[in-house]
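User: Sequence recovery, please. Input:
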């Protein structure tokens, strides 16, 4: 009788162990599934690696990118659900770099499909009108001639359908659409909207005043 009771207790103990293991496995599975869904379709973190968006964004800024505003991308495809709105001039956008789609870039959207973009002596004109950007920064007083570089004198070019023209706010030090062309809509990942953290690597301390700031 004692042996039977002991065997029953062992069986019950094994069942409890299996039940606990199943609970943990299911919890981990759903946690990973929710994380994957949020990161793929809703919000993605992004860290600034360069100075091309000074002073709007600096090296060490960490952002959240809204991935559903332009239409949730169906995982493993280029299909999107209907957007809340289309990308607009002035948006700060994260996208796949056209020359290496494994890299993510961040720039300001300057030209939408159908726009004519021209740069004359560092000034940007959209459809013949001077484009004003309060965040625009110039650190080099030189104006490079068109035959030497397209940095300060460019175009005019028309933005093709389904494509966008991107520029960094740090206009004199940005690898952008002036040099490598347009960004197809399918490569746009989302809208950068808030800085959730910022770390000053030179001084080894947080930049408290930048944390929690919306990106405009």
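Assistant: Recovered sequence (216 residues):
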């Amino acid at each position: 009788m004692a042996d039977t009771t002991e065997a029953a207790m062992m069986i019950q103990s094994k069942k409890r162990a299996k039940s606990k293991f199943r609970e943990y496995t299911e919890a981990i599975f759903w946690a990973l599934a929710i994380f994957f869904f949020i990161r793929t379709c809703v919000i993605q973190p992004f860290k600034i690696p360069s100075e091309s968006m000074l002073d709007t964004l600096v090296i060490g800024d960490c952002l959240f990118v809204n991935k559903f505003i332009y239409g949730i991308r169906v995982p493993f495809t280029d299909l999107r659900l209907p957007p809340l709105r289309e990308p607009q001039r002035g948006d700060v956008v994260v996208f796949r770099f056209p020359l290496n789609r494994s890299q993510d870039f961040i720039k300001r959207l300057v030209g939408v499909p159908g726009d004519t973009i021209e740069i004359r002596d560092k000034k940007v004109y959209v459809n013949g009108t001077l484009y004003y950007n309060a965040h625009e920064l110039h650190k080099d007083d030189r104006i490079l001639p068109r035959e030497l570089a397209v940095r300060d004198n460019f175009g005019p070019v028309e933005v093709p359908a389904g494509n966008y023209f991107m520029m960094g706010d740090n206009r004199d030090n940005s690898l952008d659409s002036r040099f490598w062309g347009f960004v197809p809509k399918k490569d746009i990942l989302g809208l950068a909207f808030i800085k959730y953290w910022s770390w000053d690597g030179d001084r080894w301390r947080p930049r408290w005043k930048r944390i929690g700031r919306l990106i405009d």
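The two ends are 77 Å apart (CA to CA).
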